Amino acid sequence: MKLPALILGPNDPFPDPLKANRDGLVAITRELSTDRLLDAYRNGIFPWTENPVTWWSPDPRGILPLAQLHVPARLGRTIRSGKFTFTINQAFDEVMQGCARSAKGREESWIGPSFLNAYGDLHRMGYAVSFEAWKDCELAGGLYGVKIGKFFAGESMFYNMRDGSSAVLVFAAKTLKAEGFNLFDLQMVTPHTKRFGAVEVKRSEYLKMLCVAIG
Question: Quick one: what percent of the chain has pLDDT higher than 70?
């Protein structure tokens, strides 16, 4: 597929993600609106860069099966010790800003001003949520993502203290499971998320799971 064919105007619908190349590039746009974001997630697509906005649906796809969540033993002891307290949607902007900062292994972030604004609008609409871990009233780590139906797309996480992001990932997963969610999208499996039971599924299978989760 030639690159110009992927460029969409503001009112153009997304192409079928099943027809995307294996790397998953689906389309390119100039805008990052809330309508475009919600349409993307409902079709198994997510944004990854800002200028221009690139939209992806890779094959295979990384997910975290909530019923098979694995909590490493040491981390489990840390969580049970009460070192951290956890909240939801108490520091959404701070979590996004934390995720936008450069860090070891993530010297460049895709989360720029357009992402901060668009996901902030989604948060005010009730779709984007944050999970926070605190220690002594300081933000130890956080994770944000998008909820639609019983589907959650985990977008990014960060930590300010050791175990902050790991603990908040476990908290988010257990919370979503308790709420009846059946799809936790990770986009891709990393060595970090693999420790918690993350697996890869074919894009076609993921899209079937997404359809059920969104309802």
Answer: 95
Q: Are residues 43 and 139 in the same domain?
A: no
Question: Residue 42: which domain range?
Answer: 3-59
pTM over 0.85: yes
Rounded-to-integer distance, Cα 174 and Cα 55, Å: 29
The count of domains in the chain is: 2
Closest to 54 in 3D by CA, of 79, 74, 26, 93:
26
Question: Which amino acid is residue 41, in one-letter code?
Answer: Y
Secondary structure string (H, E, C) spanning 65-81: CHHHCCCCHHHHHHHHC
Confidence (pLDDT) at 104: 60
Task: Report the CATH number at residue 146.
Answer: 3.40.630.70
- Which contacts qualify for 117-120: CB closer than 8 Å, 24 or more apart? 118/32, 118/33, 118/34, 118/37, 119/37, 119/144, 119/146, 119/155, 120/92, 120/93, 120/96
Instruction: Please tell me whether residues 73 and 45 are part of one structural domain.
Output: no
Chain segment 68-79, per-residue pLDDT in tens: 999 999 999 999
| Tokens (6 digits) for 25 | 């590039």
Report pLDDT digits (tens) over 28-54: 999 999 999 999 999 999 999 998 999
CA end-to-end span of the chain, whole Å? 32
Q: In one letter, which amino acid is 201? A: V
